[in-house]
Amino acid sequence: MDKPFAGDNMAGIRRSNRAAVLRCLQEKGNLSRKGLAAALGLTPAAMTKITAELLGEGLLQETPSAAAVGVGRREILLGLDPHARCALGVLLGLGRAILSGVWLDGSVLFAETVTLPPKAPAEETVADLSRRLMALVRESGVKRDRILGLGVAVRGILGADGRSVHRTFDALDAFDFPICDRFEAHTGMPVVLSNNVRALFAAELFLDRGRAADSQFFLRCDSGIGGALSIRGRIWEGEGRQCAEIGHIPAVRRGGRPCHCGKCGCLETVSSPTAILQAAKERLSPDRTPLLWAKRGTDLTFDDVLDAATRGDVGAREVVDRAVEYLAGALKAAVYLLDPGRIVLYGAAFDHPYFLSRLRAEMDVGVDERHEAPLVKSPFNGALEPKAAGLLMAARYLENGGVSV
Ligand SMILES: [Zn+2]
How many Cα atoms occupy the beta-carbon half-sphere of 321 within 13 Å? Predict the structure, then answer.
């Protein structure tokens, strides 16, 4: 017998059983040992051993159930201790970064937004963000041995190695930048990396316990447009780590505006809130946009355009309706290609009833009922930015059986 192989195999089984217990409790909440054993198909003896180990490490906590199971007896439930460990996060976008710390349940320990210039110098920016992050850790008082490491969620396309960022679409000034190596050198902690939209979606899946196992399409419409795809609860990145880059689907055939990706006529150049605001400003006139015209001279915002459209401004409506038509066209293609269980909508744009109702109406145009994927606004809309990057590391830790990466 090859003992080293047998040893590895046992260690692997042990870790996968620990991971199953941790993920089951994270998704389902507190359970008894018996309930856990039944949910995971493990023997009571195996469950006793695994949970004793995790209790000893402080990852689980015991609580008596509310309901009595016999005279004077209450069932003991096991649950994750959310404050057993925490993870740090850096969400790096265009013009800003969010530095944060999160507990294992996604609750926020601290969060701070840092303003950055466009095309921020990569080396200096990572050094500065690391310094500030470690200062926040010290101010929070959290002990170093509780910190799992750092999750980095960055705008743009990751390198093939999954540890560098190929391009950030003007967030940083560098290409093929080894961002994990740099953050590790500055913080002394392990780093996991993701694209920012996929990180937001991963946080949604982590926190939305009831629907996490479905196949879903995630549409983020904030200043730009981004997408992400999950297949049976797992995010699909694609062969080139560019899956669901819906914002850069060619939308306008001729005369399209330049996109920051280098092409012209991308969906983002016509349907994003930034593009909608730009188009409305260009159309501004007393006749075409009378309600918006009344606000001339002020610093017009996307909210102003949506408010004007809601109140019946013809020009504002034309701009928004055109944008939504293009957006729905791309989304309908995604539905026919991917057959998702639902489309999760995330971003400030979906807080506007006019935008959301127009999108719902457009999604029904030309579609048979078998391809009507439900549009669901994220229950976490606007709240995932401080959580997403840190949760990358927290989720990795739980999937790894409570062993640091
Ligand atoms: Zn583009």
Answer: 11
